[in-house]
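Example 424, ligand cobalt (II) ion.
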Amino acid sequence: MTSPAKPGPLSRRHFLGGAVVAGAGLAGTSIARAEPGKPDPLITEVQDWSRYLGEGVDKRPYGTPSRFEKNVIRRDVSWLTASPESSVNFTPLHELDGIITPSGLCFERHHGGIADIDPANHRLMIHGLVDKPLVFTMEDIRRMPRQNRIHFLECAANSGMEWRGAQLNGCQFTHGMVHNVMYTGVPLKLLLAEAGVKANAKWLLLEGADSSGMNRSLPIEKALDDVLIAFAMNGEALRPEQGYPLRAVIPGWEGNLWVKWLRRIEVGDQPWQAREETSKYTDLLADGRSRRFTFFMDAKSVVTNPSPQAPLKQKGRNVLSGLAWSGRGTIKRVDVTLDGGRNWQHARIDGPVFDKSLTRFYVDFDWAGQDLLIQSRAIDSTGYLQPTKEELRKIRGTNSIYHNNGIQTWHVKANGETENVEIG
Ligand code: MTE
Ligand code: CO
């Protein structure tokens, strides 16, 4: 018999401030249905929005969501980091549908705040083991052949708080360090070809122009394969938070490599052993050794609805929804269980299935009001099956922060409230 794990040492209620779960449960939430002989004033009486003229076309030169969507925002966890300039906030996955993350909701991770760069003054330098060191302006880059591709970016620290047990109560916080947008940019291999890479070149150093000057070493094979130097996301210029005017797109690999505000690429014959690949973004194993240069983001999935911030409201017909992704290819199948793993069914994948992109899945189900233990597991095009958290811990120990792609469990209670738990 499976049972939910006890809450960890941190109080989840404290964490959520009570605001999110308030109003959960079944009372008073039944769907209004037409009843003969009972007129509905929302239909029979003329409402204000039908009575008065609305705002004209010039009121919103750059559109924003309806005022009734105020809850759909990025959120941070105040006690997670010491300062907001070196911090992270999270994508509200439970409020979204389809596969594209709206630009204003993409999670942000900065090491030195958001650089405020005039594109006219931005330069990208390529030097080191090249025949001809080059400096590109944004105008130079915009005159080169460009490509459009949809890819997820996941921080290697996504789900990092969950290594030792269920912790944060909401998929925004457990899984929200991921976003998925369409990038427009120039293949890095074209820029490198202009500079002429020397035969002994093996690694590149990518460096940002922000106050942290964040840098990472990248193997040249990846750079010559599918890396884009992007200036647009979702059809418009990159947002300042996402690296305006230029960022690296490293499909399927950990978010830390996707250097924002990209200003310099040095070509070398070995990795630089930068801070972010020695003291950070390494995985400390139980025996004291560390895994290093663990670039790939392995297959992962999460049920976004229901979830702690999006409880079930109504018995009967319901839609379970979620996201799956793999840094090694496409999502082939997603399995979902409602009873803690006794029975699994194939989820219905809907919408486009792109390489190294978020993929949307659904299970349309009837809920009789019983407790549910919901899990999803992704299978990618290499045949890899998303592991359980226990399977991960057997190999990786419990020191880790990064690369936690274990199966998530949500416990839906009889009143619809939903909690982050582990079963075993
Ligand atoms: N690039 C620079 N220049 N500075 C940074 O702080 N953060 C990295 C990466 N690139 C960072 C950066 C990390 S750890 C991640 S996960 C991604 O950017 C986050 O990208 P996002 O802010 O678009 O979500
Ligand atoms: Co990161």
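Summary: The first strand starts at residue 75 and ends at 76.
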